[in-house]
């Protein structure tokens, strides 16, 4: 069953940190069975808090997604994401 990681950027705080994240994050994907479905495309918030940007990543299994998320490479990139912006991250299982 596929698993989806949904990143919602709520507030940008430091563009330099986000730029560093953008440099590191792609390398963290290497070796992981990840398929990007949406990456900061045009976003329209119809309900709830405004989203500044959305990323949706698909993984074949929950374990594969968590292996990527907990990897040392992504952990290093994530430090910059957390310094640069406020995000919500939702993991949801497909049908």
Radius of gyration: 13 Å
Distance N terminus to C terminus?
A: 7 Å
As a percent range, the share of strand residues is 25-35%
Instruction: Estimate the mean pLDDT confidence.
Output: 96
Give me the count of strands.
4
Written account of the structure:
By secondary structure, the protein is an alpha+beta fold. Helices cover 38% and strands 34% of the residues. The protein has a 4-stranded antiparallel beta sheet with strand order 2-3-1-4. Helix 1 runs antiparallel to helix 3.
Task: Note the topology.
Layout: E1 3-12, H1 15-29, E2 34-39, E3 53-59, H2 62-69, H3 72-84, E4 85-93
Antiparallel strand pairs: 1-3, 1-4, 2-3
Summarize the structure.
This protein has helices at 15-29, 62-69, 72-84; strands spanning 3-12, 34-39, 53-59, 85-93. It has 95 residues and is an alpha+beta fold. The chain is globular, with a radius of gyration of 13 Å.
List keywords for this structure.
95 residues; alpha+beta; 4-stranded antiparallel beta sheet; 3 helices; globular
């Amino acid at each position: 069953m596929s698993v989806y990681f949904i990143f919602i950027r709520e507030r940008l705080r430091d563009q330099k940190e986000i730029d560093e994240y953008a440099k590191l994050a792609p390398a963290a994907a290497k070796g992981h069975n990840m398929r990007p479905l949406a990456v900061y495309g045009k976003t329209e918030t119809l309900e709830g808090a405004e989203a500044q940007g959305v990323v949706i990543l698909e993984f074949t299994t929950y374990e594969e997604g968590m292996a990527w998320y907990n990897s040392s490479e992504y952990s290093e990139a994530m430090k910059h994401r957390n310094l640069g912006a406020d995000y919500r991250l939702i993991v949801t299982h497909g049908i």
